[in-house]
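pasting for ref. prot 1 ->
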Amino acid sequence: MQACLTNEKARDAFNASNKSELYVMYQDSPNVLLYKNPNSLVAEDFDTEQDIYIFDRNYTWTYVHTHESMCGPYYKVK
């Protein structure tokens, strides 16, 4: 297990993070999406998504939104 921010602290950290470019990956999909200039994205944009992993181009942080309503979201800084 890794120490990370959870719940509202994770959302706040994601919303405040530098998002000049980021990757979005879904657990059951072979595709990884690259978002360029996504600074207007906020954690709430992903509330209806399940098992989604979002990380910046340099892998300095990761935001995870799971399918379990009682778990996460999670935000981890490298």
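and prot 2 ->
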Amino acid sequence: MEMRALVTGASAGLGAEFARQLSADGFALVLVARDESRLRALADELAAASGIEVEVLPADLLDAVDLERVAARLAADARPVDVLVNNAGFAVAEAFHASAIDDERRMHELLSWVPLRLSHAVLPGMRARGRGGILNVASLAGRLPSGSYSAAKAQVVALSRSLHARYARDGVSVTALLPGFVVTEFHDRMGVSPDVVPRAGWADASSVVRDGLRALRKRRRAVVSDWRYRLALPFLPLVPDRLIAGTGLGGRLDG
């Protein structure tokens, strides 16, 4: 039986790595991002390497019409989607008091509303088939008091937990992946220097994706990636909120 996964933000970074690892596992793919040329180059690479079917679906998820096209693809009975990876995202680099409110709104729409809309679209079919998985790329920032990015990612964690609790009985697993700093284009797009933390604090995209897919297969509701951040997690509540907020690091974590 052919299995199919849809990945948002698939043109680079974690999204492209999700596509590569899913294709290596034998999944047919639907790749979603704004940059059609990069999507097609990745589709050609994966089709040549694995012989899988790769569908390219260019879309700006902040455009209502494009978002509904992706939602309709997820709801389609023909060539159904078995795994949804909600990965698309960006962060606002400026501090909250100095940021443009339109940028804040766009960020929250992409990080919070889009995963909710796409999960809502795919769930009915998954329930009817009695199987499926949704992997929401959140962030360790969702557990830190640092900026509105943290607030948006906290909502993704809460949504994932709620959906997992409600739909696991129907055969649908929902997992939140909480990365820390990851080596991708994410920080370049924000204009943030990689020197914000020591190199030892950066995780490799391939290990983060493996952690997320493994957790989804094991039907876990959340996973912190990678081992360095899992070790640090129990100590975070001991750090005063004002210190974490003062560093600004929470809003710069990958997700």
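Residues 101-129 form the longest helix (29 residues).
Residues 12 and 185 are 7 Å apart (CA to CA).
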